[in-house]
Specification:
The chain has a 3-stranded antiparallel sheet, covered by helices on one side. It has one domain (about 1-80): Mth169, Chain: A, CATH 3.30.1280. It is of the alpha+beta class and about 80 residues long. The chain has 2 helices and 3 strands. Pathway: Purine metabolism; IMP biosynthesis via de novo pathway; 5-amino-1-(5-phospho-D-ribosyl)imidazole from N(2)-formyl-N(1)-(5-phospho-D-ribosyl)glycinamide: step 1/2. Pfam families: PurS (PF02700).
């Protein structure tokens, strides 16, 4: 079975309260090198057999029309998961 990874992130101008909460927790846990966090979404789409260009094209369309909200999010990656 093949797997396609779709990654979606909030647009840069959109506030990210989850990212801010994570950033606030970092120092309490000893992580002091990070100055910013943005939290996004990752989807794993499974297909029978190897991933083809047709599968990727369908995944891109699904990412734009269903998996993301184009008003506040960008689809940043649609790719086959390498073994």
């Amino acid at each position: 079975m093949g797997v396609i990874i779709v990654e979606v992130m909030p647009k840069p101008e959109i506030l990210d309260p989850q990212g801010k909460a994570i950033l606030g927790a970092f120092p309490r846990l000893g992580f002091t090198d990070f100055v910013g966090v943005r939290q996004g979404k990752r989807f794993e789409l499974t297909v029978d057999g190897a991933v083809t260009e047709a599968h990727l094209e369908q995944a891109r369309k699904a990412a734009e029309e269903l998996l993301s909200n184009p008003i506040i999010e960008n689809v940043v990656s649609v790719r086959a998961l390498e073994d």
